[in-house]
Every structure is written in structure tokens, then in C-alpha cells.
Design goal:
heterodimer, A: 268 residues, 6-stranded mixed β-sheet, disordered C terminus, B: mainly alpha, ABC transporter involved in vitamin B12 uptake, BtuC, two-stranded antiparallel ribbon, 14 helices, 73% helix, globular
Chain lengths: 268, 355
């Protein structure tokens, strides 16, 4: 299923957080959304899963406007992996995964055999079946993220959105999570902080700067030294990974300029 | 794929149906005790005969006197049923509020909703004495509860975002404010029973229970439970987070608004009829989650039923300890609830430290 954003702008309290952003994710493609902090990555993602209505522009899921579809239908087309802080109440792993069945359920419906089978299958796919009755609070960061991926799988949505899924994960958990996501083969849009990971795992990427998409394409075409200097304000040099041949970036700070030296500099 | 899937046999949990069955039996037993004992004790066989004679008329039930019949059926049964309704309602509202504001310390008493309801009821009592009883009193308490809840939620916002940490602070503060105004209004009104009225709103009692005021509270609590169960799935998701719930296709604003109105309605009616009772809505949901997990489809009915049993027994204790004097409900619920809650807090901290 195809995901498309056309000229999406978001104004919040007078500030333009997203500015005429257009992007598309083709069926089965893994696309990264990168940019410095505050560039509007999460905001853009929120317009897709209906937390923030675009001020202008459209979000299309399989050609239909996500903001004109019923909420449950959007949830059947598009699943989300986001971390929302520690829940104070403890659910077990299978309870969280079962929540993915929400868009298929009416209020008083019972969970049926299909639901449990899908939960089981999803847990199998993320290799967490043995932990299914464990409390979420006892899991490691990597395991928690895999639970959320399993919930997205139980949701059976062809489009997957992820907001910095590798935050706070150790290296092994980071790589195995991204491997897993890649193997699922869903139409995936993933906000990532780490440009090397984005380059290694994604087919294409979009670069956001101050709410605008300033570059898009294959990682090695997009992540030029000039762009990294202008958008991320770092000096970068390209190398090839000696074994995988993958693009690797190595960063050094830009030579300090007076404005940047000690700046909590807000542009306002 | 691997053999049969949806089984939950490995889970170390009592099945919900079994638990609910046991609680129904416990409620029946507690009811018998509640109607048998008091200032005058009625022997249990006679008590059961009285109940049977009223529930299954036509049979020849004997073995009780007319006075015993009056004690059991006229004086005590409405009180016991009201205790059950109040208990169920408090746990229901506590569970809903804890989930909706994502704070396990929330309950109608802590968040100032009970004192808001009390203020509403007293306001009408003082300024519109003609409308001081019955439905207008319920309506006024509901209005007070709703305003208090709206105020607490508004004050818990920081930079336009709702912050679960602030909600208890805002609630406790408003609660003191409302109680102060309520107390002032009562003293100002020359009510000869001023001290009693104030105790009623602070600590609660079922002294005034009679058949005429059982129906409405019981019905409202049942309505609240049904609405709560209707929203059980979105509630589960909202506990994880609002964005998660939205991404799963739920309208969180609508769910939150509906649940807040229902919470205010149940709280208002309960306060109008039984005053402010603390620690039930706080403690019972925690104890129940400990048994059945956090899924609201299980927590809501189990908490309501368990709390009904609990409050019937609490009310019995209140009537027996200083016989013929009565203790307010809130004294016993706090004496029992506070230590239990402290134990819970410690256990919780230890569990977190182990992570």
C-alpha cells in the first residue's frame, strides 16, 4: 500500500512546524525521515496517524485521504510504533499485542480465536513468544520495542510508521530491531536520528529542515557533505564500510563561529 | 505453525468468571451479615427466613418475629444495598479516573470531585431549600462534581499539555478549597446539625439510607459500569498513551469526555446519598489489578463487585464498633485503606528497583 503526503503544512500556535512537505512511500519500500531536532519529523508523522490535522495539504493512504476515512479504517491501513513514556499500569506482553486488534473490534466484542492466533503469529515473528505472559515493565528496551512491532503486526496494516524506534537501545538491539523491520517488507516510514543507520537500512530518505523537505533520494545521493554542513551543521566525510560497502559517515564539529559557539540561540 | 494458540493456561491468574462467581457469593454472605447485625442482632436463620419470605412470597416461611422482619427488611436491607452500590460506584469511578488521567493516585476523593459534589449539594440546600432533596439534590451534586473535575483537569495542564503528575496536586488543593466553602456555607445556614452535616461530607455515612433512596444510586452505578465497559478497550489503549489510542483508531477526546461525565454523575449521586468516602476508589482498583492485571474488561466488573462486598462489611463494622453509636464510613476505610496502600507503594517501589 502506498503512503503519500502532498503539500502538508502544520501550524501550531502561530509557528509553522511543517511547511509544504510532500513525500511518498511505495508499497514495500523502507523510507527514512531524518533531520535535526525540532525539524518537524514527529509532527509530520503525527499528521498520518491522525493526532495532528494538517493545516493544509493531504495525507493519502492507498489514494484515500486519511483525514476523511473513518479512524478505524486508517488504523487498519497504518500501524504505529511510538514510545509514550512508562505506563503506570502494567500490561502483559500478549495484552499489549492484542490491542493491535482494536480497529477490528466493536465496543462489546470479545477477543476470538482469530485474534489470539494473530497475536501468537505476531509474537512468533518478533521472537517473543516465550515472554508472552511477562509484564511489559520487566522487559528490556529492545524487547519493549519488539512488542510494539508485534502489536503493529497484529493490526495487519500494510503501512508501518516508526518514530525513532532505536532510541535508548544498545547496539545489538538496535541492529536486530532494524533487521526485523526491514524483513517485514511493509511500506515503512521511519524517523531515525542516526544517519548511518538510515543509510544502511533504508531504500530512500527524506531530509527535513525547519519543517521543509530539503532533499530526498537514495542515501548516498542525499547525504552530501554540503547538505550535512547546511542542515545538520556538522563536518562530515564519506567512507565505505570495508566489508558491506555501505555508506558510512564520520562527523566532526564545524569550526566554531561566534553565533554557534554558546548558543541556546532560538531563531525567534 | 505451532499447536493451538489462544490458550492462557500458563498464565498464573484466577479466571475472571471464577472470581466474579466467588464475589457474588461473598456479596450474598456479606449482605446476610449486614442485615443480621447491628444495635439489635437478629439470629442468622431468622435473617435468612426474612429475606426468603420477601424474595419468594407464597411459601410458608416462619421462624422470625415482626420486629425482626422490620429490622432486616425495612431498616437494614436498604442500607446494605446502598452500601453495595456506593462501594461498587466508588471503585468504578476510581478505576476510570486512574486510567483517564494516567495517575494511579487518582480517585474521586483525592481529585476533589467528592468535595465538589458536596459543595453542589450544600449550595442547593442553603440557597434553594425547596430543592434540597431527591433528584434536585442529585443534580446539584452532579453539577458540583462535574465542575470540580473540569477545574482539576484544566489546572493540570502545563503549556497546554495535560500532565498526570499535576492532577493529584490540583485535586488535593481544590478539595480543601471546596471543603472550606462547604463548611462555611453550613455554619452560615444555622443548620442545627451543622457538625453532623460537615462530618457527612468529609467522612460519609449510610445513616439516612431507606428504600426510597436506594434505586437511583444503584441504577446510576449500573449505568456507569456499562458505560465503563463500553469504553474498556479505548481505556486500555489510553493507559498506554493518547497517541497510541488514536493510532489504534479511538477517539480519545470523546472517550475521555464521556468517562469524565459518567464519573462525575456517579460521584455526585453517591456523595448526595452517602457523603464523601475516601480510600475506596483509591485502594480497591489497585488490589484488583494485582489479581487480574490491567485489562479494564476484567478490572471494572471485578473491582465493582469486590468493592461492593468491602463497603457492606465496612458499614457493618461502623455500626458495631461503638454500638449504639456509629462511626463514619471514612474512618474505617482510611484505617484499613491507608496501611494497605502504603504496603502497595513499597512493593511497587521494590518492583521498580529490580528492573
Amino acid at each position: 500500500m502506498k503512503l503519500e503526503l502532498n503539500g502538508v503544512s502544520v501550524n501550531l500556535g502561530g509557528a509553522t512546524i511543517a511547511d509544504d512537505a510532500s513525500l511518498r512511500v511505495e508499497t514495500g519500500e523502507m523510507v527514512a525521515l531524518v533531520g535535526p531536532n525540532g525539524s518537524g519529523k514527529s509532527t509530520l508523522l503525527r499528521t498520518i496517524y491522525r493526532v495532528l490535522r494538517p493545516t493544509t495539504g493531504t495525507v493519502l493512504l492507498d489514494g484515500d485521504d486519511a483525514w476523511h476515512l473513518p479512524a478505524a479504517e486508517v488504523a487498519r491501513r497504518c500501524a504505529v510504533v511510538i514510545q509514550e513514556g512508562e505506563a503506570e499500569f502494567d500490561f502483559t506482553v500478549d495484552e499489549v499485542v492484542l490491542m493491535g486488534r482494536a480497529p477490528y473490534k466493536r465496543a462489546f466484542d470479545r477477543d476470538d480465536a482469530t485474534d489470539f492466533a494473530l497475536v501468537d503469529q505476531a509474537l512468533e515473528q518478533v521472537a517473543l513468544r516465550s515472554l508472552r505472559y511477562r509484564s511489559i515493565a520487566t522487559l528490556s528496551g529492545g524487547e519493549k520495542q519488539r512488542v510494539l512491532v508485534a502489536r503493529a503486526l497484529a493490526q495487519q496494516a500494510p503501512v508501518l510508521l516508526l518514530d525513532e524506534p532505536t532510541n535508548h537501545l544498545d547496539l545489538r538491539a538496535t541492529l536486530s530491531l532494524l533487521d526485523l523491520i526491514r524483513e517485514l517488507g511493509l511500506s515503512t516510514l521511519c524517523v531515525l536520528h542516526d544517519l548511518n543507520l538510515a543509510a544502511a537500512y533504508c531504500d530512500r530518505m527524506y531530509v527535513l529542515s525547519a519543517g521543509r523537505i530539503v532533499a530526498d533520494g537514495a542515501p548516498h545521493d542525499v547525504l552530501t557533505e554540503q547538505l550535512l554542513r547546511e542542515v545538520f551543521q556538522v563536518d562530515a566525510c564519506h567512507v565505505r564500510h570495508p566489508r558491506t560497502g555501505c555508506l558510512q559517515l564520520m562527523f566532526t564539529p564545524l569550526p566554531a563561529t561566534p553565533q554557534l559557539a554558546d548558543s541556546p540561540a532560538s531563531p525567534r | 505453525m505451532a499447536p493451538p494458540t489462544g490458550d492462557t493456561s500458563e498464565r498464573r491468574r484466577v479466571p475472571t468468571a471464577v472470581l466474579l462467581g466467588l464475589l457474588v457469593i461473598a456479596l450474598a454472605a456479606a449482605t446476610c451479615l449486614g442485615v443480621a447485625f447491628g444495635t439489635v442482632n437478629v439470629p442468622l436463620p431468622a435473617t435468612v427466613s426474612v429475606l426468603a419470605a420477601h424474595l419468594l412470597p407464597g411459601e410458608a416461611w416462619g421462624g422470625f418475629t415482626a420486629v425482626q422482619d422490620q429490622f432486616v427488611w425495612e431498616f437494614r436491607l436498604p442500607r446494605v444495598l446502598l452500601a453495595a452500590a456506593v462501594g461498587a460506584g466508588l471503585a468504578l469511578v476510581g478505576t476510570l479516573m486512574q486510567a483517564v488521567v494516567r495517575n494511579p493516585l487518582a480517585d474521586p476523593y483525592v481529585l476533589g470531585v467528592s468535595s465538589g459534589a458536596g459543595l453542589g449539594a450544600v449550595f442547593v440546600f442553603v440557597f434553594i431549600p425547596a430543592a434540597a432533596g431527591g433528584l434536585p439534590r442529585y443534580a446539584a451534586a452532579f453539577g458540583g462534581a462535574l465542575l470540580a473535575l473540569a477545574a482539576v483537569l484544566a489546572l493540570s495542564r502545563d503549556d497546554g499539555r495535560f500532565t498526570p503528575q499535576r492532577v493529584v496536586l490540583a485535586g488535593v488543593t481544590l478539595s480543601y478549597l471546596f471543603t472550606a466553602v462547604t463548611t462555611f456555607l453550613i455554619f452560615r445556614s444555622d443548620d442545627p446539625r451543622a457538625a453532623n452535616s460537615i462530618l457527612f461530607f468529609l467522612l460519609g455515612t449510610l445513616q439516612d439510607a431507606q428504600w426510597a433512596n436506594v434505586g437511583v444510586p444503584a441504577a446510576i452505578v449500573v449505568v456507569g459500569l456499562v458505560v465503563g465497559l463500553y469504553y474498556a478497550r479505548p481505556l486500555n489503549a489510553m493507559v498506554v498513551g493518547d497517541e497510541t489510542a488514536t493510532a489504534l483508531g479511538y477517539n480519545t477526546n470523546r472517550a475521555r469526555a464521556a468517562l469524565m461525565v459518567v464519573s462525575a454523575l456517579v460521584t455526585g449521586v453517591l456523595v448526595a446519598v452517602a457523603g464523601g468516602v475516601g480510600f475506596v476508589g483509591l485502594v480497591v482498583p489497585h488490589a484488583v489489578r494485582f489479581l487480574v492485571g490491567s485489562n479494564h474488561r476484567r478490572v471494572l466488573p471485578v473491582a465493582a463487585l469486590a468493592s461492593a462486598v468491602y463497603l457492606v462489611l465496612v458499614d457493618l463494622v461502623c455500626r458495631l464498633v461503638l454500638r449504639p453509636e456509629e462511626l463514619p464510613l471514612g474512618v474505617v476505610t482510611a484505617l484499613l485503606g491507608a496501611p494497605y496502600f502504603l504496603v502497595l507503594l513499597r512493593r511497587n517501589r521494590r518492583a521498580r528497583a529490580l528492573r
